[in-house]
Predict the structure.
Amino acid sequence: MRIDVLTLFPEIFTHFEEWSIIGRIIDKGLVTIRKINIRDFSEDKHKRVDDYPYGGGPGMIMKPEPIYSAIKEVKSDNSKVIYLSPQGKVLNQQLVNRLSKEEHLILLCGHYEGIDNRIIENYVDLEISIGDYVLTGGEIPAMVLIESIIRLLPGALGKESYKEESHFNGLLEYPQYTRPRVFNGLSVPEVLLSGNHQKIQEWRKYQSLKNTYLKRPDLLENIQLTDEEMKILKKIKEEFDR
Ligand SMILES: NC(=O)c1ccc(N[C@@H]2CC[C@@H](O)C2)nc1
């Protein structure tokens, strides 16, 4: 997979590319990430990339020409141009899974008050938001998008994360524990020390369903539960809806 990030602040990505899992996935050659500085595509002698909004209003808007030139420079037939903005489709694992199949992503990071709408309407394939809040730039959302996608690439998560099925099967995760067995007088649930894998799996399924029902019941609307899971959920509802 190729990812080109169009940004006015390429330096923000330097450590990101070396950091932890990202650096390892890049070193494995599963993805190449390029930072393209939009300012390099500004034609005027002052290298202007923003200007005052027509119709007045606060702040500055990014000019369309430099963005257009940058997109044209990197775009090919199999590219998808993604613009990070609060108006985008809110990112979830389903969308991440879909995007992880793409060959070439061009991530357009805006800044200031936004970018000229003619770019969004005519040259952006998909607008994505990482949540309902406003940021000064699209760079951090771009990093969130990159990490969520590339960790799904085949071979990305080596043995260090065997829990492939934890890829958000729609339910929230079960609680996790590690040594010591007792911490501040608090013990680890006995079942996890039993070595009985059938019981451990049942306990974890129960905890996932309980966590989801109590913390994010909305997620249950979009999941096809097995009969077994429905039975467990029924028990949970009886227990917690008293
Ligand atoms: N919630 C989000 O994903 C998000 C994305 C971008 C953003 N801000 C940029 C700066 C100006 C405009 O390009 C949009 N804020 C929030």
